[in-house]
Amino acid sequence: MYKLPKVLRSLAEGFERLPGIGPKTAARLSFYLLSVPQSFLDEFSDSLGGLKKRVVRCQTCFGVDEETPCYICRDEKREEKLICVVESPLDIIAIEKTGKFKGVYHVLGGVLNPLQHIGPDDLKIT
Ligand SMILES: [Zn+2]
Fold this sequence. Notes:
Layout: H1 6-16, H2 23-34, H3 38-54, E1 56-57, E2 64-65, H4 71-74, E3 79-86, H5 89-98, E4 103-107
Helix pairs in contact: 1-2
The structure holds zinc ion.
């Protein structure tokens, strides 16, 4: 039986822990990374390693940025009284891509779901 080198096995196991990635995809991604330039790997690992250290929740809108308040909340051209309430920071990306919304956001951090016991107290409503 073929045995992967330890570093490849460890990397594949890391990918497998991500949502939607099974063993075959994890192995394929790991082998793919063997073919990319070292500079890409350095940048990629730096991004990965710094992810939780550098990204913070905006204390105003609960979106994400590298500082709080986030760049949207700091933007004086935004209409503060026009608030778009969204479920997650990913929703902000989709809306910002349109370039049409000039207001600010409020991220709830989820949606009400009584079946999963997610009530108003679990959301960022205030
Ligand atoms: Zn913000």
